[in-house]
Specification:
487 residues; five-stranded antiparallel β-sheet; four-stranded antiparallel β-sheet; 17 helices
């Protein structure tokens, strides 16, 4: 037993066996040094090629729409206030005609859970289409790439300029690109802060250098954040920072719609007509690598389903353009399912999808019912903490209460206050109060009762507010009426 077991470098052998002369790394990343077979390929900068096509038109239009909403909403007003305004100083959150307060934060939790289940449902049905068409990281990344194409030129020119010694034209183009990126990032930061501070005044303050230091801090933070994420990190965010890419596999199944390469039709790959000859039994794929060049995350879709794929369909449009030129059927790379690729029937309705659909529908119904039955009035009743109660010479007991009334409606209301719970319980002071739209009023009231009617030191009583013009707006609030110990 003196002979040693021979060692083999499986990584190197796999690399030699599975990578063509146009290696995996060189297909994905432009590098002046070819990868060595004795070490794994290193990841460099991804030079994305611009491509047109049906799915890219859909993606671009959805991206422009989402950016128009993001940048435009803070500029619209609803009456005398912004249409969407998170007023932290007043603890009011205005969304169109509705106004929400911190005690309504359960709605925020509800909406977030609703969005999560909606995302799960979309993922079960169509994979990562959210990432490819609607995710803010993808939207801003594609915007930055769009400016990169216009200011630095097509992919092959960018690669050639980066490999060549720096010249004045290269530095000028790169400076112009980064200036455009910073301006977009600055506009993004101002728009974000504009949801918390009225943007019309904010822009004037920023230009005049009189903006609040906290506003300047958050504008600067989101400017740098956007510039780094969309300009420099890009695919690293999707690959290493976004948790969605990691747990999405738990929601995928063989019936999920994914971007996939039809290996049965495409393999074995034939060489490009300009670089080699075709074999007698070659597939439709000519190994042009255009699908790799247009991928924003730098993957080769022909290697199979990968978590890096964001389902943007750029490879589909690129491959379809090639199939059109060589007079082959479209769809070598297409939206399909694993079952369809295996020649089986895709099942749309399955238990996992039904569970998500039922849960999502139930939450939507409950949320709509809650919003419809939500009474636009909120009352806080706090007993006076300095005096438990007072006794009068006439044998009556007085309790004092501090009330905070919030009118959460979009119009002014006059409310009538009534009390109940004890025989002979009376209200001292004003019994009506007018509160403006989205206004908060505070008042101090006194309740009196005959000491002979108190059978215990603490009695439950109810203070009820009713809107005089709309009896459906009512708030009943229970509190305690305190008195002396009963002998």
């Amino acid at each position: 037993m003196t002979q040693r077991i021979p060692l083999h470098n499986l990584t190197a052998e796999a690399a030699v066996e599975h990578h063509s002369p146009s290696s995996h790394a060189s297909r994905h990343y432009a590098s002046s040094n070819p990868p060595s077979p004795n070490k794994p390929p290193t990841l460099g900068h991804i030079y994305v090629r611009e491509i047109g096509g049906f799915f890219q038109r859909i993606r671009r239009r959805s991206n422009w729409l989402l950016m128009a909403l993001y940048f435009g909403l803070p500029w619209f007003n609803w009456g005398d206030r912004p249409l969407v305004w998170f007023d932290l100083s007043a603890q009011e959150f205005h969304l169109f005609a509705a106004t929400f307060y911190p005690q309504d934060f359960i709605l925020l939790t509800w909406i977030l859970v609703l969005c999560a289940f909606g995302l799960f449902l979309i993922t079960v049905v169509a994979g990562r289409v959210w990432c490819g068409y609607s995710c803010p990281q993808s939207v801003w990344t594609f915007l930055f790439i769009w400016f990169e194409h216009r200011l630095e030129g097509p992919r092959h020119r960018r690669i050639r300029r980066d490999k060549a010694p720096r010249r004045l034209v290269t530095l000028w183009r790169k400076s112009l690109k980064h200036t455009a990126w910073l301006l977009i990032a600055l506009a993004t930061g101002i728009a974000f802060v504009g949801y918390f501070t009225p943007i019309r005044e904010l822009v004037v303050d920023v230009v005049s250098l009189t903006a609040h230091p906290w506003a300047l801090f958050w504008i600067g933070f989101f400017t740098v954040f956007t510039y780094l994420n969309a300009g420099w990190l890009r695919h690293q965010v999707c690959l290493h920072m976004c948790p969605y890419a990691r747990f999405q596999s738990a929601m995928f199944d063989a019936n999920t719609l994914i971007v996939s390469y039809d290996a049965v039709r495409g393999e074995p790959r034939r060489k490009h007509p300009q670089t080699g000859t075709e074999t007698s039994r070659a597939g439709d794929c000519i190994d042009c690598e255009l699908c790799v060049q247009v991928c924003p995350t730098g993957i080769d879709i022909r290697d199979g389903l990968q978590y890096e794929c964001i389902s943007c369909a750029a490879c589909i449009d690129a491959c379809d353009s090639v199939m059109t030129r060589i007079d082959k059927p479209l769809g070598l790379i297409r939206y399909t399912t694993e079952r369809a690729l295996e020649g089986q029937l895709t099942r749309f309705w399955r238990p996992q999808l039904l569970v998500y659909a039922v849960a999502l529908l139930s939450m939507v119904v409950l949320l709509v019912d809650f919003l419809n039955t939500r009474v636009p009035i909120d009352v806080d009743v706090v007993r006076d903490r300095q005096t438990l109660f007072e006794s009068t010479a006439e044998g009556r007991i007085i309790n004092y209460y501090n009330l905070t009334l919030r009118n959460q409606d979009s119009q002014t209301h006059r409310y009538a206050l009534s009390v109940s719970g004890l025989p002979g319980l009376r209200l001292q002071g004003m019994d009506t109060i007018e509160v403006g739209a989205n206004e908060t009023r505070s008042l101090r009231v006194a309740l009196t009762a005959d000491a002979a009617d108190l059978t215990q030191p603490s009695h439950p009583v109810e203070l009820r507010f009713i809107a005089l013009g709309d009896p459906s707006i009512i708030s009943a609030n229970e509190t305690r009426f305190l008195g002396p110990m009963v002998k």
